[in-house]
């Protein structure tokens, strides 16, 4: 059967569409129709043109006028705020900037308000980084054939699952994609699961496909009396980027990361070989796929993953005024001073501090009874209940709750914070436990508070938020077997900073994805990148979570994996993928000159000390340095908006 999808809009772009780096592969458009047709037949007609999700609303797509189907467009307008709907569209990305080309300003986004009828009629929709063609894979054979075709034709290959990636690893200009989203066989429970070629059972395990999303897993778990370590978002994929990058959860303090819960992974390697990896066979692959990062070592087709009996949770919910700097400082101090104790009591959860707005704290533990939990949370409750002229500083509640209700509430709250079609910048740090004790508490508190003050002072067209995630497996890691611990024969490849860290700190900015002025986008990234530098300097032995990371992280080898893991991962990578078929930005074995990354803005990494022992800089925590940063940012903003 001939591959009949129209290519006109793409062809019309001409050569300027194909951006080239020093290393480059062949343009997708240079493959002959006959070759595409033959390939399409071999994957049962599952080859498609990649079209930006909102393109059907635009009157001009890639320079070609087109008719708008108002019914299709209305549905897109109504649903673009629905995060699950976005994951169901190949051309949809959770952070709209990764569907565009941030270096050139080309995109096909819409404004944050729904509906946006002005943008699609006033300027063209551009392909940006949405892959030009893709295979809607349904089977292991589809994966194998797609890898083979990409390799034979020397194409830029992208693996996309849900498109949640914060660092642009599931999109690339002029690329060919493998879409795993629809590989979703029914969830299968095995009691007393024995990994293949092992002899011992590892407890109750579910087996899911590459495209499985957490929403479905949580529904299944609730109905079957289990808890599952998973992302706090229904749309995130369980077996793709989340797992291969580490995977944290509100339950991680008690039950570990995703990589600690996966018992077996079946994956197609870059050479097409379908392998089973676990603690008893293909251990190198098992190591690499548990932290080495998505889209790098192979394509995960299926995972078998531990599930845990349901337990109630003591769940505390606190809101604190975010408009008063003194209150914000006090809140941060309370959180820092109690973090070590709370970690030892199994508290996990999220602190969201949108700059200038109320902070929201959601923390839960299954290791305390209600009265101990109340006592533990008292410092936070005292702050929330403190009287002010008009009422109290905030409000707080604590109760025993069913875990799935807690999760449902947090997911709904998180979703409400994400604006439709918004673009995001991000920079993060895993902060080791030692900064939460003794004199270090003061330094950490003031560093975090300075970030809030600097962010408040910056005139940027974005909503800035500092997030403090108590989702590290610090407590759990102390209970791991010798073999699973860092350096042990069954260890995973995530940075050891996860094991000795208490918080995953994120600074994010949400902005209007229709922005075509590259200098504005670049500045948002640059200032986001710099915002975390004080924390990088303070915690040279910390790390960063590769899935929720600054794409311009100064020393990714050190931050994402640690040198020892990195060295082993690089060796494995060279062995399983000598031609670098599967590469991602800042991933193991990536080459920054590859044209695949030509849409990343030119952000200057300005933290040379990161990854090396920091040079002490007392001034950094004092006001002179802080005001210097504010001045710098303001001058910079005036400069770029002139
Ligand atoms: C709203 C939101 C909430 C989040 N919540 C959490 C959270 O609670 N905990 C947490 O740890 N993280 C969270 N994340 C981050 C999440 O872990 C990353 O976005 C992750 O990359 C998503 O993986 P994905 O497969 O769903 O997405 P994609 O963007 O499709 O893929 C991400 C990466 O994985 C690769 N990949 C995808 N599928 C496969 C596969 N089958 N085999 C090999 N590689 C593959 C891709 O090539 C890409 O490099 C969240 C992100 C968002 C946007």
Summarize the structure.
The chain is built from 22 helices and 20 strands. The chain is of the alpha+beta class and 642 residues long. A seven-stranded antiparallel sheet has the order 17-14-16-15-19-20-18.
Description:
The protein is built from 22 helices and 20 strands. It is of the alpha+beta class and 642 residues long. It has three domains: 172 residues, no CATH class; 122 residues, 2-Layer Sandwich (Uridine Diphospho-n-acetylenolpyruvylglucosamine Reductase, domain 3); 302 residues, Vanillyl-alcohol Oxidase, Chain A, domain 3, CATH 3.40.462. The strands form five sheets. It has a seven-stranded antiparallel sheet with strand order 17-14-16-15-19-20-18. The protein has a five-stranded antiparallel sheet with strand order 7-8-12-10-11. Strands 1-4-6-5 form a four-stranded mixed sheet, covered by helices on one side. The longest helix has 20 residues. The structure holds flavin-adenine dinucleotide (FAD). Flavin-adenine dinucleotide binds next to strand 5, helix 8 and strand 12.
């Amino acid at each position: 059967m001939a591959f009949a999808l129209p290519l006109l809009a793409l062809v019309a772009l001409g050569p300027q569409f194909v951006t080239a780096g020093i290393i480059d592969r062949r343009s997708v458009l240079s493959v002959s129709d006959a070759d595409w047709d033959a390939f399409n037949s071999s994957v049962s007609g599952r080859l498609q043109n990649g079209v930006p999700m909102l393109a059907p609303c635009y009157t001009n797509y890639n320079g070609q006028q087109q008719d708008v189907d108002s019914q299709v467009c209305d549905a897109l307008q109504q649903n673009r705020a629905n995060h699950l709907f976005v994951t169901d569209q190949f051309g949809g990305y959770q952070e709209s900037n990764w569907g565009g080309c941030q270096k050139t300003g080309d995109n096909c986004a819409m404004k944050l308000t729904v509906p946006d009828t002005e943008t699609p009629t006033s300027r063209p929709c551009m392909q940006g980084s949405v892959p030009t063609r893709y295979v809607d894979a349904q089977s292991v054979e589809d994966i194998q054939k797609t890898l083979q075709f990409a390799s034979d034709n020397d194409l830029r290959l992208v693996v996309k699952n849900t498109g949640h990636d914060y660092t642009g690893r599931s999109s690339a200009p002029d690329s060919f994609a493998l879409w795993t989203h629809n590989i979703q066989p029914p969830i299968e429970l095995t009691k007393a699961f024995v990994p293949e070629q092992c002899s011992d059972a590892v407890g109750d395990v579910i087996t899911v496909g590459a495209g499985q999303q957490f929403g479905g897993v949580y529904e299944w778990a609730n109905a079957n009396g289990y808890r599952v370590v998973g992302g706090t978002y229904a749309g995130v994929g369980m077996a793709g980027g989340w797992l291969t990058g580490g995977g944290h959860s509100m339950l991680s303090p008690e039950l570990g990361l995703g990589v600690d819960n996966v018992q077996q992974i079946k994956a197609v390697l870059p050479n097409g070989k379908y392998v089973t990896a676990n603690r008893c066979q293909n251990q190198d692959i098992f190591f690499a796929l548990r932290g080495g990062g998505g889209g790098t070592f192979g394509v995960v087709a299926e995972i078998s993953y531990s599930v845990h009996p349901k337990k109630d949770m003591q769940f505390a919910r606190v809101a604190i005024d975010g408009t008063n700097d003194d209150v914000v400082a006090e809140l941060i101090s309370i959180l820092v001073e109690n973090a070590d104790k709370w970690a030892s009591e199994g508290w996990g959860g999220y602190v969201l501090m949108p700059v200038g707005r109320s902070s929201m704290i959601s923390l839960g533990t299954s290791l305390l009874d209600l009265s101990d939990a109340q006592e533990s949370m008292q410092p936070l409750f005292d702050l929330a209940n403190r009287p002010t002229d008009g009422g109290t500083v905030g409000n707080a509640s604590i109760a025993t709750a069913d875990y799935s209700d807690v999760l449902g509430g947090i997911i709904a709250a998180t979703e409400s914070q994400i604006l439709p079609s918004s673009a995001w910048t991000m920079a993060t740090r895993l902060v080791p436990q030692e900064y939460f004790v003794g004199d270090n508490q003061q330094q950490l508190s003031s560093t975090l508070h300075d970030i809030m003050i600097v962010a408040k002072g910056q005139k940027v067209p974005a909503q800035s938020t500092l997030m403090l995630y108590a989702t590290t497996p610090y407590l759990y890691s102390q209970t791991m077997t010798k073999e699973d611990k860092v350096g042990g024969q069954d260890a995973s490849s995530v940075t050891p900073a996860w094991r000795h860290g208490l918080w995953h700190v994120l600074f994010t900015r949400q902005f209007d994805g229709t922005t075509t002025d590259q200098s504005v986008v670049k500045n948002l990234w640059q200032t986001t990148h710099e915002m975390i530098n004080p924390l990088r300097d303070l915690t040279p032995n910390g790390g960063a979570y590769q899935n929720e990371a600054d794409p311009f992280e100064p020393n990714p080898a050190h931050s994402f994996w640690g040198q020892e893991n990195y060295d082993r991962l690089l060796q494995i990578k060279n062995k399983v993928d000598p031609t670098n078929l599967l590469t991602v930005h800042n991933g193991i074995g990536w080459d920054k000159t590859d044209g695949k990354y030509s849409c990343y803005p030119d952000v200057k990494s300005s933290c040379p000390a990161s990854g090396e022992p920091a040079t002490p800089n007392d001034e950094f925590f004092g006001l002179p340095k802080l005001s210097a940063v504010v001045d710098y940012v303001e001058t910079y903003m005036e400069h770029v908006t002139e």
